[in-house]
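Explain this one:

_____
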Amino acid sequence: MGEGPAAGFLAWLAAADLPDPEVLLADPDAYVHSNRGDISWAVLTAVAQAVIDRPTAPRWRAAWKVLGSAARAGGTDVATPAMQSLVAIRSAKLPLPKDFEAFFPIFEAVGIIASIGSNGKPTTGLPS
């Protein structure tokens, strides 16, 4: 990396003022969704990676709370890569929580599920 790109990245990093993912995992209600996709993506990806690096049930639930909050705030598009990363490591000890449902509308839009029933549950296609 040259001096110009490095300076540009450092300026972006300082302006972004990214929260520590461990702070968000300790207090997922502290997450504030940014309207800037680059910032939201960086924060959500960092939260997911922190859980992937040290997957415990409390951290798993906290990460989903953060991702669900982002999706409900209109950030489903930027939260989806982090969601996919978390889904890839799920297990019987790490079941999908209720906050996963915040992604149902995007699953319906791309045809992964047929529709959302009146009970708020997908009619087909999602893993249990």
Q: What stands out?
A: The mean pLDDT is 84. Helices lie at 3-16, 21-26, 37-53, 57-89, 104-109. Residues 17-109 form one domain.
